[in-house]
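## tool: complex_structure
## caller: assistant
## args:
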Amino acid sequence: MTPRHDPCFPGGTPEDTGSRSYEPVRVGRISYMNVAPVYYGLNNGQKPDWMAMTCAPPAALNAMMAAGELDVSPVSSAAYARHQDKWLILPDLSIACFGPVMSVLLVSRHPFAGLAGRKVVLTRESATAAALTRYLLASDGIRPCLTVGRVRRADDLPDDTGAALVIGDAALREPWAARFDHVWDLGAMWRERTGLPFVFALWVVRKSFAEAHPDRVSAVLHQFYRSRSAGAGHLSRILPEAADRLGISPEMCRRYYHRLRYTLDSAQMAGLSAFFRGLYAERIISRPVGLSLFRDPGLQDAPGHERPIASACRRS
Ligand SMILES: C=C(O[C@@H]1C=C(C(=O)O)C=C[C@H]1O)C(=O)O
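## result:
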């Protein structure tokens, strides 16, 4: 889980877009293939020299943002709930799904209700999926013995493990169904229960950084939009590389990227709010969550511009 510096950007000529008088903006990247389409442009020559990229699992990025070691990063939506006073959400960026997501799995040796009193290991790389697991169990009145640990391979789990939460590349790579009788996709469970999309990750900026450098944050945001557009246009190049890295078929990989959403529209905001309300109702978080968005200074000045999610959320 140790964050590494810039391993995600081995090649590509960085673009020089100025801003040399500042320290680089410190930007995070999740070290899973789920974000490959969002970082495609940045990974292929669009990364300006004023962006310093750190690649790590979600829980490590959450901790680095909380420690002020990153300025802008994707973080677990459950971590946003915890740090809502310090962070602003960047508009129209997320990792979300509507139904099965394929890479967030609760694998179990027992039926769901049979997990009461049994050991459930939550991967230490997650905050959102861990909170969602707790919510799904608690709202059914099931009280397991929860622990946090390494969950990358089935062999990581001790024999007394009743169930385990696995996310990201490890969820896709390992044949979990061959080792566990039950494999639940948490995106599917959420949709069955609520009829809503689920938002696993948000891109956030530290509020103090946004207040000091709104134009730099705007520049980062537009780099992400541009990079994501490039990714959407080059899926045929992303698929074979991702399939190779994950050791899965290109067809399974295509289905995976088809399931993931990288926008943050009003339906996804509704799913996010429902998740936070559920966490609060089950006392998994200690206070209600408001959604505070970064106001892009570039967009505010544009005449006639409509922000798609402006009405869906409270702005800071
Ligand atoms: C869809 C996924 O969502 C992830 C789950 C997260 C979490 O549980 O905290 C955070 C970021 C995302 O990487 C995945 O990991 O595959």
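## assistant note: The first helix runs from residue 40 to 46. The first strand starts at residue 4 and ends at 5. Handing back to user.
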